[in-house]
Specification:
The complex is a heterodimer of chains A (about 260) and B (about 325). By secondary structure, chain A is mostly helical. Chain A has one domain. In chain A, strand 1 and strand 2 form a beta hairpin. Chain A starts with a helix and ends in a 6-residue tail after the last helix. With about 325 residues, chain B is an alpha/beta fold. Helices cover about 35% and strands about 30% of the residues of chain B. Chain B is built from 12 helices and 13 strands. In chain B, the strands form 3 sheets. A 6-stranded mixed sheet of chain B has the order 5-6-7-3-8-9, sandwiched between helices. Classes of the chains: A mainly alpha (about 260), B alpha/beta (about 325). At the A-B interface, helix 1 and helix 5 of A face helix 2, helix 3, strand 5 and helix 4 of B.
Chain lengths: ~260, ~325
């Protein structure tokens, strides 16, 4: 309960900060919308050239991409921790976090949230509805619920992986370029995994389970029954990875050696 | 009750020493030389509730490391810490509700939002009730004179203004124990005085324990009965400030300025038989001699000197705490 209150307190605070710079806010919202629009056009243009990919139609692939954007937007809105090493370890900001009676990871997440990224979810929904209507998909009553569940699961998969990556900085001092690489690998999850070879498929399913962010849950809504078991694993994998990452984080905080003055 | 109990506390850091040159850099790629450096070396001390303790030492003596272990930020390599009856890093979230922390070189406040918004958020973080907050913080805000700053964002405050707000922010939950790591660094005299008065006041009013690190020994003189002195991770002195002065003060120093600078040998001849040693400061043409605490000796030296040489100026200097501390470090006395 306390954490829910804190969550809304921080969101309130975040809004206030944003509103303080009015022009900034307008410009930012405009540029966010613009970049989402470009994204949308880009998707349609790129996929306009593919008709069938290993048994997946063009519209199905677009649908998967649209789905992917929703958990991804959620992830980037709340887990903006790609610069964790620099900001919190090198500059020693973590010291401040650790003197407050709220879980440290929770504080970092709240401090770094960027709610504008949620616009990406709108793009995702538009793409999904566009592709869905062309495919003639029907909506059942339980679909929205499962959609939410899968989106949360997908976002947690992303969060888990990136929190674990951020934890590397607790042990290794030097900056690593692993984060950008991981963003790249994350993109593979938005394409049907059976177009890759077995090894990559295995990695995307069990080691870096990015497939659970895009293709697996989306397959459920596309009615691809052969993937259903994977679809329903999405929330489980999400929770598992996120839970693991929190464990690693707690271990890392113990190991944290602080920046000098 | 003891606010802080520390026993055989030790913190080691693994430092890696790089080899010289390009060839060395290549070798570093494969095998690294690690050195275990103890930053804090098996120290023990206790602080009673309501005490104000000055924790002093040179840069790198281990002050900040100790404070960070006491506040639960760092995990000790070995040893025991009990602060407010808890183990700081084991029950961190519960523990930090009972302490306030100010790091002079880092801000605890949110950079972009108004000071009062920071306070409001911290009030929620520490679950302080409205009644407690109002009665306590009204007073704090008045005493620190930060009322006019409350609606300004932190990034627009001067250092002195920010520091007062930081202090207020650390006291929102009225903690029984306050850690201050160089709270007066870079501040002007007026702000320093204000902060000192304020600290004294809350110490009296709430019996707040205060542990303070600083490089400004006037802070310590104004506030602390007791000092703990650290050198290379070891406690080299723990006791009252007065006793430290008595123990290590070198006596007084007499400075002469003459109309015509004499030879050192001449001065030594004049004060022959007295236990003094003359020194000459080449730059300012000032002659110095150090005496013990013997008052008679002072007048004897002055009498003998004035009788035979024309004197322009005489000064008798009491050693300051700063000099005493410097002496202790230079000689590495334990």
């Amino acid at each position: 309960m306390f954490y829910v209150t804190m969550f809304f307190q921080y969101i309130g605070q975040y809004m206030k900060t944003r509103l303080e710079y009015r022009t900034d806010l307008v410009v930012e919202i405009f540029s966010d919308l613009l970049s989402q629009a470009i994204n949308l056009v880009f998707i349609l243009v790129v996929f306009g050239h593919t008709d069938l990919l290993n048994g997946w139609t063009r519209d199905e692939i677009i649908f998967i991409y649209g789905f992917f954007l929703v958990p991804y937007a959620l992830f980037s809105a709340f887990f903006n921790i790609w610069d964790f090493n620099e900001r919190y370890i090198v500059k020693g900001e973590l010291d401040r976090i650790l003197t407050r009676p709220v879980h440290s990871l929770f504080q970092v997440i709240l401090e770094r949230m960027e709610l504008e990224s949620l616009f990406g979810a709108c793009t995702g929904l538009i793409v999904m509805f566009y592709a869905g209507s062309r495919l003639g998909l029907e909506l059942s009553w339980y679909d929205p619920i499962l959609f939410l569940l899968f989106v949360l699961g997908g976002a947690l998969v992303y969060a888990g992986i990136f929190v674990m990556l951020a934890c590397i900085s607790f042990w290794a001092d030097a900056r690593t370029s692993i984060m950008p690489m991981m963003y790249n690998i994350g993109n593979y999850g938005r394409y049907p995994v059976d177009i890759y070879n077995k090894a990559i498929r295995f990695i995307l399913t069990w080691i870096l389970p990015f497939a659970f962010v895009g293709v697996y849950p989306a397959a459920f809504f596309l009615g691809r029954e052969e993937w259903y078991s994977y679809s329903f694993l999405t929330p489980v994998i999400g929770l598992l990875f996120f839970f693991l990452s929190v464990l690693v984080w707690n271990k890392g905080v113990q190991k944290y050696s602080g920046a000098g003055n | 009750m003891n606010a802080i109990e520390v026993k055989d506390l030790r913190k080691e850091f693994k430092a890696y020493s790089s080899r010289a040159g390009l060839k060395g850099a290549f070798r570093d790629l494969f095998t690294r030389n690690y050195k275990i450096v103890p930053a804090v070396n098996d120290i023990s001390f206790t602080v009673k509730q309501g005490e104000m303790v000055g924790y002093i030492g040179e840069n790198g003596a281990g002050k900040s490391t100790t404070i960070k272990m006491l506040t639960g930020i760092l995990t000790p390599t070995s040893g025991e810490i009990i602060v407010n009856g808890m183990d700081p890093h084991k029950e961190r979230e519960k523990f930090v509700r009972t302490v306030g922390v100010v790091f002079g070189q880092r801000s605890q406040l949110w950079w972009d939002i108004a000071v009062q918004e920071s306070f409001r958020l911290l009030k929620k973080v520490y679950k302080v009730s409205d009644a407690d907050y109002n009665s306590h913080m009204d007073h704090v805000i008045k005493t620190l004179d930060i009322e006019p700053l409350l609606d300004r964002p932190v990034r627009k405050l001067s250092l002195g203004q920010r520091m007062r707000c930081e202090l207020a922010a650390a006291l929102i939950h009225n903690p029984p124990l306050l850690f201050l790591d160089e709270p007066t660094i870079g501040l002007d005299v007026l702000v320093k005085l204000k902060i000192r008065d304020f600290l004294k006041e809350i110490n009296e009013k709430y019996n707040t324990t205060i542990l303070l690190t600083t490089h400004d020994l006037t802070d310590i003189e104004a506030l602390c009965e007791r000092v703990v002195m650290l050198d290379e991770g070891n406690i080299i002195y723990d006791g009252s400030l007065r006793r430290m002065k008595e123990k290590w003060a070198e006596g007084r120093e007499i400075q002469f300025e003459f109309l015509e600078s004499p030879e050192l040998a001449r001065l030594e001849a004049i004060t022959k038989g007295l236990p003094v040693k003359w020194e000459k400061d080449e730059k300012s043409q000032v002659f110095k001699t150090v005496t013990g605490d013997d008052d008679e000796l002072v007048s004897q030296i002055i009498a003998a000197t004035v009788a035979s040489l024309k004197v322009k100026d005489v000064k008798i200097n009491e050693p300051s705490t700063e000099e005493i501390v410097r002496n202790i470090y230079e000689r590495g006395m334990v």
